[in-house]
TrEMBL record:
This is UPF0311 protein Runsl_0518. Transmembrane segments: none annotated. It comes from the Bacteria. InterPro entries: UPF0311. The lineage of its organism: Bacteria, Pseudomonadati, Bacteroidota, Cytophagia, Cytophagales.
Amino acid sequence: MELEFAFELRVEVSAIQVMGDTPKGNRRMIPITGGTFEGKNIKGKVQPGGYDWQIIRTDGVAELDARYVLVTDDGALITIINQGLRHGAPEVMQRLAVGKDVNPSEYYFRSIPIFETVDPKYVWLTRSVFVATGVRKPDKVLIQVYRVI
Protein backbone atom coordinates (compact mmCIF):
# COMPACT_ATOMS: atom_id res chain seq x y z
CA MET A 1 0.00 0.00 0.00
CA GLU A 2 1.30 3.45 -0.93
CA LEU A 3 0.16 7.02 -0.45
CA GLU A 4 -0.06 9.62 -3.21
CA PHE A 5 -0.39 13.31 -2.31
CA ALA A 6 -3.76 14.59 -3.59
CA PHE A 7 -4.08 18.17 -2.30
CA GLU A 8 -3.82 20.51 0.66
CA LEU A 9 -6.78 22.16 2.32
CA ARG A 10 -6.37 25.47 4.14
CA VAL A 11 -9.61 25.67 6.11
CA GLU A 12 -10.31 28.98 7.82
CA VAL A 13 -12.17 28.77 11.13
CA SER A 14 -13.59 31.18 13.69
CA ALA A 15 -13.79 30.97 17.47
CA ILE A 16 -14.64 27.68 19.16
CA GLN A 17 -18.21 27.47 20.44
CA VAL A 18 -18.35 25.33 23.59
CA MET A 19 -21.63 23.61 24.37
CA GLY A 20 -20.23 21.88 27.44
CA ASP A 21 -20.29 18.43 28.95
CA THR A 22 -22.72 15.97 27.40
CA PRO A 23 -23.07 12.26 28.12
CA LYS A 24 -20.61 11.64 25.23
CA GLY A 25 -17.99 14.19 26.33
CA ASN A 26 -17.35 17.92 26.03
CA ARG A 27 -19.08 19.13 22.85
CA ARG A 28 -17.46 21.93 20.83
CA MET A 29 -18.35 23.39 17.44
CA ILE A 30 -15.92 25.29 15.23
CA PRO A 31 -17.50 27.31 12.38
CA ILE A 32 -15.77 27.00 9.00
CA THR A 33 -15.56 30.45 7.42
CA GLY A 34 -13.77 29.75 4.13
CA GLY A 35 -10.39 28.75 2.81
CA THR A 36 -8.70 27.27 -0.23
CA PHE A 37 -7.44 23.94 -1.52
CA GLU A 38 -4.94 23.00 -4.17
CA GLY A 39 -3.25 19.96 -5.64
CA LYS A 40 -1.99 18.65 -8.97
CA ASN A 41 -5.47 17.96 -10.37
CA ILE A 42 -7.69 20.17 -8.23
CA LYS A 43 -7.95 23.74 -6.96
CA GLY A 44 -10.62 25.94 -5.46
CA LYS A 45 -12.23 27.49 -2.41
CA VAL A 46 -13.75 26.18 0.79
CA GLN A 47 -17.33 27.44 0.99
CA PRO A 48 -18.20 29.23 4.25
CA GLY A 49 -20.88 27.65 6.39
CA GLY A 50 -19.57 24.25 7.41
CA TYR A 51 -18.71 23.12 10.92
CA ASP A 52 -16.28 20.91 12.74
CA TRP A 53 -18.31 19.13 15.44
CA GLN A 54 -15.97 17.89 18.15
CA ILE A 55 -16.29 15.74 21.22
CA ILE A 56 -13.46 15.92 23.74
CA ARG A 57 -13.49 12.53 25.41
CA THR A 58 -12.68 11.97 29.09
CA ASP A 59 -9.26 10.64 28.02
CA GLY A 60 -8.51 13.99 26.30
CA VAL A 61 -8.83 12.71 22.73
CA ALA A 62 -10.75 15.01 20.37
CA GLU A 63 -13.08 13.15 18.00
CA LEU A 64 -13.43 15.37 14.92
CA ASP A 65 -16.35 15.42 12.49
CA ALA A 66 -15.99 18.26 9.97
CA ARG A 67 -18.53 18.73 7.17
CA TYR A 68 -18.29 21.39 4.49
CA VAL A 69 -18.38 22.09 0.76
CA LEU A 70 -15.52 22.62 -1.68
CA VAL A 71 -16.03 24.63 -4.88
CA THR A 72 -13.43 24.04 -7.59
CA ASP A 73 -12.14 26.86 -9.78
CA ASP A 74 -14.21 25.43 -12.64
CA GLY A 75 -17.43 25.42 -10.55
CA ALA A 76 -17.78 21.81 -9.39
CA LEU A 77 -19.29 21.20 -5.96
CA ILE A 78 -17.66 18.59 -3.72
CA THR A 79 -18.85 17.71 -0.25
CA ILE A 80 -16.38 16.51 2.33
CA ILE A 81 -16.95 14.67 5.58
CA ASN A 82 -13.65 14.56 7.41
CA GLN A 83 -13.57 12.46 10.58
CA GLY A 84 -10.53 11.92 12.72
CA LEU A 85 -8.70 12.11 16.01
CA ARG A 86 -6.45 14.70 17.61
CA HIS A 87 -4.58 14.23 20.88
CA GLY A 88 -1.41 15.06 22.72
CA ALA A 89 -0.08 15.79 26.16
CA PRO A 90 -2.59 17.81 28.25
CA GLU A 91 -0.41 20.94 28.24
CA VAL A 92 -0.04 20.75 24.44
CA MET A 93 -3.79 20.39 23.93
CA GLN A 94 -4.41 23.30 26.30
CA ARG A 95 -2.13 25.53 24.20
CA LEU A 96 -4.08 24.50 21.07
CA ALA A 97 -7.39 25.17 22.83
CA VAL A 98 -6.43 28.76 23.67
CA GLY A 99 -5.25 29.50 20.13
CA LYS A 100 -1.49 29.15 20.48
CA ASP A 101 0.64 28.09 17.50
CA VAL A 102 1.89 24.59 18.41
CA ASN A 103 4.42 22.52 16.49
CA PRO A 104 2.50 19.62 14.86
CA SER A 105 5.16 17.16 16.01
CA GLU A 106 3.78 17.66 19.54
CA TYR A 107 0.37 16.14 18.82
CA TYR A 108 -1.38 13.48 16.73
CA PHE A 109 -3.90 14.72 14.13
CA ARG A 110 -5.11 12.22 11.52
CA SER A 111 -8.36 11.90 9.62
CA ILE A 112 -10.27 10.08 6.92
CA PRO A 113 -11.94 12.42 4.41
CA ILE A 114 -14.83 11.14 2.30
CA PHE A 115 -15.90 13.06 -0.80
CA GLU A 116 -19.06 13.26 -2.87
CA THR A 117 -19.48 14.90 -6.28
CA VAL A 118 -21.31 14.37 -9.56
CA ASP A 119 -18.71 16.15 -11.70
CA PRO A 120 -16.93 13.61 -13.97
CA LYS A 121 -13.64 15.51 -13.68
CA TYR A 122 -13.54 14.92 -9.92
CA VAL A 123 -15.23 11.53 -9.59
CA TRP A 124 -11.78 10.10 -8.77
CA LEU A 125 -12.39 11.51 -5.28
CA THR A 126 -15.30 9.10 -4.83
CA ARG A 127 -13.44 6.02 -6.03
CA SER A 128 -10.52 5.84 -3.62
CA VAL A 129 -9.79 5.82 0.08
CA PHE A 130 -8.06 8.94 1.41
CA VAL A 131 -6.20 9.65 4.64
CA ALA A 132 -5.02 13.00 5.93
CA THR A 133 -2.72 14.70 8.39
CA GLY A 134 -3.67 17.94 10.05
CA VAL A 135 -2.06 20.97 11.61
CA ARG A 136 -4.14 23.26 13.82
CA LYS A 137 -3.23 26.94 13.54
CA PRO A 138 -4.89 29.73 15.56
CA ASP A 139 -7.25 30.71 12.71
CA LYS A 140 -7.10 27.78 10.30
CA VAL A 141 -6.53 24.08 9.85
CA LEU A 142 -4.01 22.80 7.29
CA ILE A 143 -4.91 19.36 5.97
CA GLN A 144 -2.67 17.29 3.71
CA VAL A 145 -4.84 14.77 1.84
CA TYR A 146 -3.36 11.53 0.44
CA ARG A 147 -4.95 8.90 -1.79
CA VAL A 148 -4.28 5.30 -0.79
CA ILE A 149 -3.07 3.47 -3.91
